Amino acid sequence: MKIVLPGGTGQVGTIVDRALSAAGHEVVVLTRRPRRPQDVAWDGATLGPWAEAVDGADVVVNLAGRSVSCRYTPENLRAMMDSRVDSTRVVGEAIAAARRPPKVWLQMSTATVYAHRFDAANDETTGVIGGTGSGVPDYWAYSVEIAKNWERTQAEAPTPDTRKVALRAAMVMSPDRGGVFDVLLRLARLGLGGPVAGGGQYVSWIHDEDFVRAVEFLIAREDVAGAVNLAAPGPLPQREFMRVLRRTQGVPVGLPATRWMAEVGAFVLRSDTELLLKSRRVVPGRLRDAGFAFAWAGWEAAAGDLVRRARAARAGSGRRRVRVSGG
Predict the structure, then answer these.
(1) pTM (2 d.p.)
(2) What is the pLDDT of residue 115?
(3) Which of 28, 92, 199, 213 has its C-alpha lying 20 to 30 A from 117's C-alpha?
């Protein structure tokens, strides 16, 4: 198949590009900084020659959007909104204008669309959409608005011949440098991977291999459209999630952090505490109902695999540095 990946150079995009290319598909990546023959330049906001890549493609998987790993200032929040809405809008325009539109358009979304809650899990049918909760920072509602506008833009795109799926993705765990798992593993190694603000908030996650397999599954399943949760079936309280990761890494202790300590740490890391404190208790209702089988349903086995791969990557990097120095 010919698969077009807008935003295919980000952390998740790199995972998808690598896996789909290895599976033998023709993958075209839309990026602001093309470097490879399969990269095509675009600005993520206006139609241009890049739209020719969409015409005749089998699938579009739009992963474009500004990284959420930043301080949630008004400027950064607006950039998150604009980058997601604009890229989705213009992808829809390219599909609508295509003589041979793709059969399916998978659009990245986020599990952050659901409410901060502890009492029950959010699936696509009974889940509570966020934005109106009490006892949480006001700007958390803006994150929900980003997700809602992101999905609304795809849903309203006039593409009658193209099936549309919104991927409400939890945190994608991979050993790649700079990803969320890399950050969490570093904290665990430093002894800082303890409970944050009590650790009762739920962490929803998905192993990178299952994320790719879910993408392939949804491409093939012509009967599935609309919002689909991409999350492993076992979200865990943050304290337990990090306890498993520490045990897998061989770190016996993780220092706890209060809310204000989390604020200081997030400021130093130029990130935001919403990523640490919001309870994302999300489960994959529609994927399971459609018969998708997770290879990594439990966090303990998934963490073990990810730690092993991270160690192998570091060892390989070390060997390469030694060879370069020796040469």
Answers:
(1) 0.92
(2) 93
(3) 213
